[in-house]
Amino acid sequence: MDARVAGVAEAADTVEQTLYEIRRKIYPRAVSGRFAAIRWSLVFLTQAVFYGLAWLQWNGRQAVLFDIAARKFYIFGLVLWPQDIVYLTVLLILSAYSLFLFTAVAGRLWCGYACPQTVYTEIFLWIERKVEGDRMARMKLDRGATDARKLRLKATKHGLWIALSLWTGFTFVGYFTPIRELFVNVAALSVGPWEAFWMLFYGFATYGNAGWMREQVCKYMCPYARFQGVMFDPDTLVITYDRDRGEPRGGRSKSVDPKARGLGDCVDCGICVQVCPTGIDIRNGLQYECIGCAACIDGCNQVMDKMGYARGLIRYSTENAVKRHEDQAAILRRVFRPRVLVYTGILWLVLVAAAAMLWQRAPFKVDVIRDRVAMQADAGDGVVQNVYRLQIMNTDETPRSFAISASGMPGLELSLRENPVELGGATSRMVPVRVKAKPDAGTHGSVEIEFRIEGRSRGENDLTPAVIVEKTRFIVP
Q1: Where are the domains of the chain?
Q2: If DSSP codes are grouped into helix, strand and coil, which group holds residue 469?
Q3: Which of 104, 198, 277, 460 has the fewest CB atoms nearer than 10 Å to its CB?
Q4: Run of H or E residues at 349
Q5: Could you give the 3-state DSSP secondary structure of residue 328?
Q6: Could you read off the pLDDT of 21-48 as tens digits, one per residue?
Q7: Element housing 380 (H / E)
Q8: DSSP annotation string for 120-166
Q9: Mean of the pLDDT values across residues 261-275?
Q10: Topology annotation, domain 364-476
Q11: pLDDT tier at 362, thresholds 50, 70, 90
Q12: 368 pairs with which residues across the strands?
């Protein structure tokens, strides 16, 4: 009985050890080449936009500001209100289909070159290399005893990481609170609790994800790594190892003829593994951990150049091209296949529709709300009065005057404090309106009337005004 229990316990321990994988720290080696240059260009571009755009001014305000408190989003000359949520839907659709399109054409381009996790990991790794050295130096430092030099280097690295993370959190919050005002408040230590929370939270997330977790985020936390396979097909460009050319692999000197020794072009140097930020061996085939950064291509090409072999042992190719030994021209011909054409067509259709919606977007919006307290009343001499509230929103930053009129019943009279109503740019106003009418004999119940709101830019009376007509009901007792 005891032996049986011990056997069950041992089996349980075996299963637990099989399922649990202890993380092995990865020390990516620095690499240079065409794809590394592209990746760093996108790092500079994305961060110049992220850190710089928040400080850009437009019409006397921040160019890009998501003012949640005022429920207005400013994007250069465009002002979006809660009623414009349709544009957020369009943006999400465009993002989704762009991801589908790029993935169908060339795999995980987003992950390898523009994903914030990739971008900040690259920046943090660059800081780490500058402080601690390249791969072998970092490995030696971590294995060595904890002395004054090690503490100094680690403290310097983490200090720079934390400073960059806090500045990133500050910039992030600066898109929701005017960043110049936020900077003054932070300098005076008078920042609000929510701003402080989100600066620290976003900074902590940047520090933890890019400094500590790194490849763990891509492998275990990001859902894209799990469902990317369903968007690939045999004609998708992915990073591939040419097994027919590279195998059998083996070390040799530059002077050795590999064919004479029955060897392939792969010298089994391991550079492709050393430069990989997720620590995989691309020679084992495409794996879900591969983020498509192409660092292994640059590393392998450097080795091929030193050995005097042709480049492209590891390269961007497709499953069909490798199997059939097709050239680049054949690969390019298969780019415009039905799946890609469908994604492209939908993307352009949504893009054109969104552009048309923005082009025809009314410069103001009007909502007619019936007053629930004083719906209708008898004003004497057969005159009936209804009370309404007109919510007028001037959706852009041009000051306008709004002339209000009504029709639909004979003898309609409007009573309001001012007509036309003056509104500044990107502002809204609730305007109470009393409507009086003397209905014809026998008229009772609900009668349809129309409010006509004519908006004209101040000082531009020669321009054709914008007009909105809103229908509502006039109640006759």
Answers
A1: 233-326, 364-476
A2: strand
A3: 460
A4: helix 338-359
A5: helix
A6: 667 899 999 999 999 999 999 999 999 9
A7: strand 376-380
A8: HHHHHHHHHHHHH-SHHHHHHHHHS---HHHHHHHHHHHHHHHHHHH
A9: 94
A10: Immunoglobulin-like (2.60.40)
A11: confident
A12: 390
